[in-house]
Amino acid sequence: MILSGMEDEDKWLAEGIAGIQHNAFYMHRALDANNLRDALKCSALMLSELRTSKLSPHKYYDLYMRAFDELRKLEMFFKDESRHGVSIVDLYELVQHAGNILPRLYLLCTVGSVYIKSKEAPAKDVLKDLVEMCRAVQNPIRGLFLRSYLAQVSRDKSPSLGSEYEGGEDTVMDTVEFVLQNFTEMNKLWVRMQHQGPVRIREKLEKERNELRDLAGKNLHVLSQIEGVNLELYRDTVLPRVLEQIVNCEDERAQYYLMDCIIQVFPDEYHLQTLETLLGAFPQLQPTVDIKTVLSRLMERLSNYAASSPDVLPEFLQVEAFAKLSSAIGKVIEAQVDMPIVGAVTLYVSLLTFTLHVHPEHLDYVDQILGACYKLLFGKPKLEEGRATKQIVALLSSPLEKYNDIVTALTLSNYPCVMDCLDDKTNKVMAMVIIQSIMKNSTCISTADKVEVLFELLKGLIKDLDGTAVDELDEEDFNEEQNSVARLIHMLYNDDSEEMLKIICTVRKHIMAGGPTRLPFTVPPLTFSALRLVRKLQAHDGNVVGEEKEPATPKKIFQLLNETIEALSSVPSPELALRLYLQCAESANDCDLEPVAYDFFTKAFILYEEEVADSKAQVTAIHLIIGALQRMNVFGVENRDTLSHKATGYSAKLLKKTDQCRAVYTCSHLFWVDEKDGIKGGERALLCLKRALRIANAAQQIANAINGTSGPVTLFVEILNKYLYFLEKGNPQITSAAIQGLVELITDEMKSDSAPDPASDAFFASTIRYIQFQKQKGGVMGEKFGPIKM
C-alpha cells in the first residue's frame, strides 16, 4: 500500500514537471518575442502546477524548484522595461488579473521584487502589501512555499542598515516588521498541517511537518542577519514578538524547534542580556516539549561564550545568570509535573556544567545545584533507570573532572546526599569514579575528617548495602573494586603523626565492617600504612597523642594491628594473616620490642599449626617463618632457641621428604647468622645439615624402592652448597673432610644412577668448578678450600 502511494506520487510529480516544462517552453518563446501578454499567460499556466495537493513536501519541493528557476528568468524580463514597454507600476497592477490566486501571488511577488528595486515606491509599502496578500493562500504546504518564495526574492531588497533601500521612511524596523509578520503567518501554516487529513495518517503528517520546519525557522535566521538589529531592538521588539508567537501556537513540535532556533541563530551576548525574558517563556510551553534539551543547549552556548574570553565573565555576574537559570529550571520542573526524573536531572547536569565553566570559584553554587537535585530525588525510590543513573553519575563526576581534586568535592555537603539516592550498582560505579580520580591526580587525603566523609561516599564498595550478599556479585568485578580500595588506602597520609593515627583508626573502623570477603583486600594496605607510622615514630623516638588524647606508642599501634590481623585470620585467610604477623614481628624487632615480636611469632606458629593445611602452603609458610626469624636480633637466647627449635621441628614434619630436607637445611641459618653481632652456633647449624643429609638419604631409598633407581642427587648437591657456604663464613664445625666425603658420596650416587638427571649433573659440575676456583684463588679462601681433594 505504501509502495503504491509512492509510485502514485512519482507519477504526479512527473506530470507536474512535464506541465511546467511545457508551459515554460512557450513562456520562453514569448519572452524571446518580447510578448508580455503571452509571457504572463504561459507563466500563470506554468505556476498552476503548484496548486496540486497530491504531493508530499519532499516531492512538492522538487516541483517548486523547477518553477523557481523559471521565475528567475521571468524576473529578468520584468526588469527590462524596454522589452515589454509597460511601467513597473502598471505591471504590478497587470499581474493581479491572473485567474488563480496561487499563480497570481507568485507573479505578484516576482514583480514586487522588481518594483522595490526600481525605487518607484517605498520598499516597506510593497513588502507590506505582498505579505498581506499572501494570506489568501491557506493551504499549509502551498502557503509555506509561497511565503518562502516571498522571503527569498525580498531578501536583498529590505531597508536594513547600510542597504541601498534605507532612508526616508524606510527603516530597519520596517524590515523587522515584515520578517516578523511573514514568520508569524508561516508558523501558523506549519502548525495547521497537523490538523490536515484523517487521524490514521497522523504519523505521516508529522513526518511531513518535520520536513518543512526549516521553512518556518529560516525567518529567524533572516532576522539574526539583518544589519541594524542591535541588542536594544532585539530585546524590546524581536524577542518578545517571536516568543509571543511561539507560546501562543501551543504546538509541541513548533515550540521545541523554534526555541532551539532562537538559541542557535542569535548571538550569545544577546542571550545573556535577555536571559530573563527568554527563560520566562519556558514554563509557558506545552508540558510535552523537550525543554531539557533546549535549556541544555542554551547553557552550553553560554558556557562556550564564557570560555571564549575572560573579559565577558563580569557580564555573567552583572546579569546574575546563575540565579536566573537556577530559578528557571526550578519553575520548569514545577510546571511540568510529568517530566521524568532523567529530564530534571539532565537540566541540573547542564546547569552544573555551566556553573563550573563560568563560576568555578563559587563552590556554594555547585553545592546549591546538588542540593536542588537531592531535593528532587528525596523521598522517591532509589534510582535504577539506566539513563537517570547515568545522568546522576555525570552530575557527580563533573566537580571531580573540573577541580581534579576529590578534597574539593568532600567540602560539598550535598554530594553524599545525592550519592545516597543511587541504587547499589550505580553507587559502586560512582565510588569507582571517585577512586580513579584520586589515583589519576595522585590526591593525598590528609585529615581523618576528610577520610570519614570519603569512606561514607565509598560505602558501596567497603560494605554490603541493603543486605546484598557478596556471593551474588561477579568475582572479577568484586576483586577489581576491592583492589581499588586497597590502592586508595595508600593515598591516605599526613606528615603529622597524631593525625595519621586518627586516619588509621578511621579506616580501620570502616573496613572492619566490610565483611569477611573484603578483609583480605583491605587489611594488608592498612597494616603497611600503620607499620609506616611505626617506623616514623621509631625514627623520631617519640610518641603521639591518639584519639583519646592518650600517649600512642608503637606498642599500642602493634596492639591495634594484632586485633586487626586476628580478624583476618578468622575469615579464614590464614596464609595472608601469617605473612602480616611476620611483617609486624620484623617491625617490632626494629623497635626493640621483644615481647611484642615474640607474640607475633607465636600467633604465626599457631596459625601454621591449626589453619594451614595445604602441603604447598605449609612449605611456603615455613620458609617465610624461617626467613623472618633469621633476620630477628631482638630475641634473647631463650626465646630465640624456643622459636628456632619450633621452626626446625615443623620443617621436619612436612609431608614430602624433599620439602623436609630443604626446610631443615634452611634452618641451619637460624643458628649461624653472618652479621657482626649475629648468633654463631656452629655445632647446631651442622646438626641441621646432618639431619638434612639423613632425610635426603631416606628420600633416595624411597625413590629406589618405588622406581628401582636412586633418583636425582639434587638434594645432596644443595646440602653440599650449604656446607661450602658455612665453610666460607668460618663455621669451625664444617671440615674439609666432611665436604670431601659428601663430594665422594654424590659421585658414587651419580655413577650408580641408571637414569642420570642432566640438571643435577650440571648443578654438581658447577659446584666442583667453584671449589676448584676457590682453591686456586689463594689467600684465606685458598687455605679453607685447599685440603679438599677432588
Give the tags.
protein transport; two-stranded antiparallel ribbon; about 800 residues; about 0% strand; single chain; transport; 40 helices; mainly alpha; 2 strands; about 70% helix
Describe the fold and architecture.
Belongs to the VPS35 family. The chain has 790 residues and is an all-alpha fold. It is built from 40 helices and two strands. It has a two-stranded antiparallel ribbon. The protein is elongated. The model is unreliable at 544-549 (pLDDT under 50).
> What is the gyration radius calculated from CA atoms?
46 Å
Round the mean pLDDT to the nearest integer and report it: 88
Count of alpha and pi helical runs: 40
Question: Within the largest sheet, what's the order of strands?
Answer: 1-2
The structure class reads: mainly alpha
- Could you name the ranges where pLDDT drops below 50 across 5 or more consecutive residues? 544-549
What portion of the residues fall into strands of 2 or more residues?
A: under 5%
The shape is: elongated
N-to-C terminal Cα separation, in Å?
105 Å
Count every beta strand, where a strand is a DSSP E run of 2 or more residues: 2
**Main sheet summary:** 2 strands, antiparallel
Helix content range: over 70%
